[in-house]
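To whoever is on call:

I kicked off a structure prediction for a single chain this morning and the downstream step that reads the tokens threw a length-mismatch warning. I double-checked the sequence; it's 253 residues and nothing unusual in it as far as I can see. Pasting both halves so you can look.
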Amino acid sequence: MRHNSYLYGRRGDDFYYAQLKPHARLTRAAVQPDIGPQMCARYSLTKEQITMLIGEIEVIINIGARFNIAPTQIVPAIWRGPRGIETVDMQWGFKSAWSKQPLINAKAETVATTLFRHHLHQRCLIPADGFYEWMADKTPIRFTLPDNGPFCFAGLWQEETKHELDLDTKEYRCIILTTTPNESVGRVHDRMPFIVYPGAYDDWLKDGELSKYLLEHPCRDELYFCPVSRALNNVRNEGPELIRPAPVQKDLL
């Protein structure tokens, strides 16, 4: 089943998709063509430690297993910082002057011509080993590589300076790019996170202008998918029980 236009939102501790109806009162965030549906709103990084090869550099990430990573949380990212390629903690979601909700996704097809173009030189990789989309019955579907290994989303970052106790501190926020789905994700949604080919990690992080070719060619390898526990719908829930296979109506997949 393919979802139509959906808007990401939050009710209490639950993130949800609200179908956009013609008579609905929409915020500017819902109608900006460069943002589109906020479709990648949850992912996982279930290993205690992962190692990513960026060019010839091994980047080791130790965060502890996380099965229910959600917007506004602190997430690990990889960037080319002052000391070279390294990990940095970022808060997931850009601030916006015209939306109370954080902007968590940007469409790769239009990012170079919209408000996000100012951040195209601020690129990062966001490690994950799975992401989730929801069926009509609110059952989450987890997508992973066939070998359950780690991969990286294409991300952008922004810097925020806070002034507290006569000190200026810098904090960083990130956003995940999305693209059209491969066959696996297309069964559930008409968008998917932009997964970067491992061989292109170093190119994604290089300083300077981003090549149009790289932006137009995400990894489209087929993914393994499996329905998992609805307990994942609440961002307060965490643990390996969230990704145990769950039943789903046959006519929904």
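Update from on-call: the warning came from a stale cache, not from the record. Cleared it. Sanity check on the structure: The domain at 6-252 is CATH 3.90.1680.10 (hypothetical protein yedk fold).
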